[in-house]
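2024-03-11 09:14:02 INFO receiving multi-entity request
2024-03-11 09:14:02 INFO entity count = two
2024-03-11 09:14:03 INFO echoing inputs for audit
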Amino acid sequence: MKKKVVIVGGVAGGASAAARLRRLNEQAEIILIERGGYISYANCGLPYYIGDVIAERDNLFVQTPHGLRTRYNIEVRTRHEVLKINRHQKLIEVKELVSGRVYQETYDVLLLSPGAAPIRPPIPGLDGDNVFTLRDVTDTDRIKAFLRDRQPRQALVVGAGFIGLEIAENLVAAGLDVALVEMAARVLPRNLDPEMAAPLHLHLRAHGVNLYLQTALSAVEQKDGRNWALLSNGERIPYDLAVIAVGAAPEARLAKEAGLELGTNGAIRVNASFQTSDPHIYAVGDAIEVESGITGEKTYVPLAGPANRQGRLAADAICGRPVKYEGAIGTAIVKVFALAAGTVGLTEDFLKHSGQKYLAAIVHPLSHAGYYPGATPLDIKLLFTPEGRILGAQVVGAQNVDKTLDVIAAIMKTGGTVDDLAALELAYAPPFSSAKNPVNIAGYVAGNIIRGDLPVVSWDQVLDQENPDFLLLDVRTKSQFAAGALDGALNIPLAELRQRLHELPKEKEIIVYCTVGLTSYLATRLLIQNGFKARNLSGGWRTLKAIREDRRLTAAAGNR
Amino acid sequence: MKKKVVIVGGVAGGASAAARLRRLNEQAEIILIERGGYISYANCGLPYYIGDVIAERDNLFVQTPHGLRTRYNIEVRTRHEVLKINRHQKLIEVKELVSGRVYQETYDVLLLSPGAAPIRPPIPGLDGDNVFTLRDVTDTDRIKAFLRDRQPRQALVVGAGFIGLEIAENLVAAGLDVALVEMAARVLPRNLDPEMAAPLHLHLRAHGVNLYLQTALSAVEQKDGRNWALLSNGERIPYDLAVIAVGAAPEARLAKEAGLELGTNGAIRVNASFQTSDPHIYAVGDAIEVESGITGEKTYVPLAGPANRQGRLAADAICGRPVKYEGAIGTAIVKVFALAAGTVGLTEDFLKHSGQKYLAAIVHPLSHAGYYPGATPLDIKLLFTPEGRILGAQVVGAQNVDKTLDVIAAIMKTGGTVDDLAALELAYAPPFSSAKNPVNIAGYVAGNIIRGDLPVVSWDQVLDQENPDFLLLDVRTKSQFAAGALDGALNIPLAELRQRLHELPKEKEIIVYCTVGLTSYLATRLLIQNGFKARNLSGGWRTLKAIREDRRLTAAAGNR
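2024-03-11 09:21:47 INFO inference complete, emitting structure
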């Protein structure tokens, strides 16, 4: 069957759909219309080209219009903008941006992959030629040219989501002083809980990023020949270049004007085979609403991996194959200087507010066997139902963050439990892992919590108590304790605990901690079996120390 | 309940069981008896201590007897050997090796974790003080002392399994010339298929290892003051030091003499809660038979990860908790200089011989986004049933081998399919992965093969044909083709293929290839839809080139 498929948007989802369509149907007429100057480019690589980590601009292009034409027989029209969809006649109105000519194009099937547009906060004056957002190659070229021609010294990055963090790092790499301003109390606020963001804050500050948290950009002004940002904390900081990275909104204008149904966040509503409310129109990528692979609820997950998969599946559906998209769980990762931070599923913050029942485990295993050189600790947080189904995970560390997260994400995608994590047989040799892989450890600890073997408290139940009615027991060695401990904690090293049980109260709750939570787990088991009311501090001293240090530096920054 | 549990063997499974027992039961009497001088040491780290990669001997010890006593209240007896089990009286006869004293010890529960002993081939003369096996710290100390005191120059390593490969690498690191002799036609013969071993062969030779394949050690002799190894190929090579790493056999003597049931490979038979045929005696680790998590058949999987898990689960069972071991799928990895090789489940070689129906996919995706610096190719082989259930995987490469393997192993453990691999949402940012993760790509290609979208042939159906009745079509660019191609192949670059279809025969089968298999996939789809009989060469030129180069070097080595 010779179908005419017109695809609107030539990056990620659109390009992936076009290629798959051709592989499945050599006869179809495929037209790819892209408003910008480029198709199928390395969207996620753009910040790294700004930082010169990616040195060659040519490397940003995965496919060229020429390649798509010769290898795939796909007609590519860049700098063409679709103005309007006429659903009744199945045609679109297209504007050739260079000439201004407007023409009509018919379709049998229309696939919308317009993506999402960066949000610009409505701040007067925030529109100079030194203010940027980063969406495409053209934006990137503008920033690169500005860096080259104007030699800016001070950068303002607004928004500490994934892109804001990547831009901040790459502007530091490009030699600039960077202020990173985030309205929320932490970076990646929708993806990380406070104790998991804390090590990133410390790391960003250690790399010279001036981090402003719980701070909004209130206004900008020009004065004394410079640009100044006025912050909600009253500070006034100069900037030569500003990048706004406060999020993106689905580009649903075309769909909306055509009367297609919209959903969450104003994104285009589609069914499980990516059909919009018009069965001849499909949509994929950052412009659509998806089903959460965890809650089953409608949500918005603008990520490159799902966009690519959606494009492929939409092509299958257009070719008449049965397709049922499984929804998205939102696995994502970001490099932050020498660290990586990864996230999948729901955060504790979200779970708390949604009122769902959940449990949490925090562990700090080493990236590989401690006796083999170069191992570094991981911070892993696992969220799960009281029955053990995994709801979310967060991983921060210098190595194997991606691996750890991917394995957990794989089990989440199959609807697995924390016991599945414990049972996994993962590749072990000393350079790569430990006989008990970090994922196994997270699974075991979560299982212990579920079965009541390991009652836990979280850091905020300890750190923010005015009149604690519990005893804090530090079971690390005397020298570890001396090097820094919680105020008011009693130190009984585990090795002495069995002999010193008489020093402890039977009535009062005892909160046990050690460096990462293993020694205190042993102590907690010991105490419980001896009739004490003991609970383990989740994440241990490592988590608490990061939060305390982060609070100290954040407070200091606020008083600057 | 105060139980007396005696554990025989203080490494991996035994140590893990002891610790878990104490955590579950503060009252139990736990005695850990170990024949050797050390417990709970880093078994898998020993080769790296020989190569000075692990510099500090102390780092090899995960737990000490003192630590187990003070932290876990476990009585540890090293250099004590259990001579005999008296099941009727529930006691064992123990010899204190230092004094020679023999005594009896009663038990309520006995847990056997004696491990496996290195196999010594019965070659006369292969027993000098310069001939070693590597099992424990004492063996390691002997090798280290020999290296230090005798300054050997030439090493003979017999057996190219996991340990043989690690020892070969570490002896090279220690400055020796290394000959690695393997009876099979390839390294890791039970874990890798020929095309997956080929890149390792090339890499070993490139790092100066003299690799002898399909070669046995026939005899050894002393002559002219040197030790000589006589090989089955007629060669005679000198050695100053020999390490025998031809495998290990379960240490089941105690169990056998006590009349316990044995199984596969002479290993101790246990039920799903690790009980032997005597319900008061449990067994775990390298001494036991396990169920294959893939076939359900009894098998033998001596690996550290499963041993640790088994120890933990046996402790649960001993404490009366319900335990059902899920069997082992045999995930394993080895570092080979700058490469890693990983494996899980069944090989194609095994599947062929077992007569099971299977399909195979070979892909070569990059370790992370190609536009971000430092990406290296992965070789991934996936084996699966015609219905898509994953039977095995092999991964070779310089980066992300462990991650790729772990994700596949996770899906295998949950009984998943290749479509599950395709659907996974894995962490993507350019430094870590691609929008289509290597695992997704393997899953998509496997799905294409299953659904008949991508008919494939394997390298051996092409390379070893005397009178091929197919046309070889190379769809790479002219310059790629000119740089090296298969004999007799016709070159039509994909970009020209649609215009040059008339040059191809409609009746003859066309086998299409490119560098890694993506371009040829497009070409295969194009040809099939135009009525040609086309199949894609799995793994492409990259796989073929490695095999051809490997064969050339192996033949050259044989003629030395």
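2024-03-11 09:21:48 INFO post-check: Chain B has a mean pLDDT of 96.
2024-03-11 09:21:48 INFO post-check: The longest strand of chain B covers residues 390-397.
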